[in-house]
Write the structure tokens for this entry.
Amino acid sequence: MRMSGAAPATPAAGRPTDAERVRSVLAAAHSMTVVTEGLRSEVRHLDGADPMGRLHLHPGEPGGDGEHRPSIRLEFTDIAPTPVRDRVRARVTILGRLLSPYTDEGADSTCMEFGSAVLETAQGRSYVGIEELDAACPDPLAPYEAGILTHLLDDHAELVTLLLRLVQPLPTGAILRVLPLAMDRYGITLRLEQRRGHRDVRLPFPSPLDDVEQSGVQIQALFSAARRSSHRNSLPA
């Protein structure tokens, strides 16, 4: 299956499509769980290499229902790199059947008949077909997002708090912590933690990014807009 080079689908309201979100989770994955023939295998140290380079996806083949093709399930968990509450941001499951035997050692020659891709987030569950997945591209920030967000929090925490000035309206009640939760080519998402529960807010960049080199300029544009705002944050002193 071709997994790069195609133009991505146009997202709604400046957000990644579900297919783009799946591709981004795969591109940033450092591990996955493979379930086949009733056995679970943990594959670690992917080192940011797209696991679809290890398992080749193929469309369903007609007339193959009578053949014995073991089912296979690939499980990925997208975890926030910052110490927010409820750190699991998404789960991705790729379902299908094996066309060639799977082993950890020989995974780069394994072929898989694609069934579906399932994306689970706080907003619900969605299903992505092979055509959508093939046409989508991973977010250009996906392999670098964790480093960018941890750098913001560790070295520029006061600027993260400054971004509260751009949140309209603020939640009622005191905000205990504001942490960067996610970043993609369209903007940054903050998690506002309160005594009970939290709220996630998305701050869009002035324009979508084409590559990671543009991220610094876009983040600085948000900081500049926050400095110009008279809206005060409500973090405790």
